[in-house]
From TrEMBL:
Species of origin: Parasphingorhabdus halotolerans
A Pfam family assignment: Penicillinase_R
InterPro entries membership: BlaI_family (IPR005650), WH-like_DNA-bd_sf (IPR036388), WH_DNA-bd_sf (IPR036390)
Name of this chain's protein: CopY family transcriptional repressor
UniProt family annotation: Belongs to the BlaI transcriptional regulatory family.
Keyword Transcription regulation recorded: yes
Lineage summary: Bacteria, Pseudomonadati, Pseudomonadota, Alphaproteobacteria, Sphingomonadales
Keywords, sorted A to Z: DNA-binding, Transcription, Transcription regulation
Keyword Transcription recorded: yes
Example of a GO biological process term: negative regulation of DNA-templated transcription
Gene3D superfamilies: Penicillinase repressor domain (1.10.4040.10), Winged helix-like DNA-binding domain superfamily/Winged helix DNA-binding domain (1.10.10.10)
Lineage: superkingdom: Bacteria
An example molecular function term from Gene Ontology annotations: DNA binding
Length: 122
């Protein structure tokens, strides 16, 4: 399992999962639309991700290119499993029940869950 990444690091990963490799400046250009982060902040986050072996670096002249070393689906599967294990004793049903009781499930959500369950049964 990949070491946990912070919310800020996750923002950087989403950019890299969409397109890679990118320079720190290119990542910053994409993140600045949502966040008011400086280039130095982005470089710090990229360094942390590289130290966690989640992002790889490749030197290109005087710059570094950054690429994800972990697939988005793989990361999300691990994080989701840890979340369900920690908060719901490893069972998904209490999570869905909690969301339903809190009126967090829309009619579309329920329809999609029903469709998923039909597919899983088939």
């Amino acid at each position: 399992m990949v070491e946990r990444i912070s919310d800020a690091e996750h923002e950087i990963m989403e950019v890299l999962w969409q397109q890679a490799p990118l320079t720190a400046t290119e990542v910053a250009d994409r993140v600045v639309v949502q966040k008011d982060w400086s280039l130095q902040t982005v470089k710090t986050l990229l360094s942390r991700l590289a130290a966690k072996a989640v992002v790889g670096t490749e030197r290109q002249g005087r710059k570094f290119l950054y690429s994800p070393l972990v697939e988005r689906d793989t990361y999300l599967a691990g994080v989701s499993r840890k979340f369900v294990d920690r908060l719901f004793g490893g069972k998904v049903t209490p999570l869905v029940a909690h969301l339903a009781e809190a009126d967090e499930l829309t009619a579309d959500d329920i329809r999609e869950i029903e469709e998923l369950l039909r597919e899983l049964k088939a």
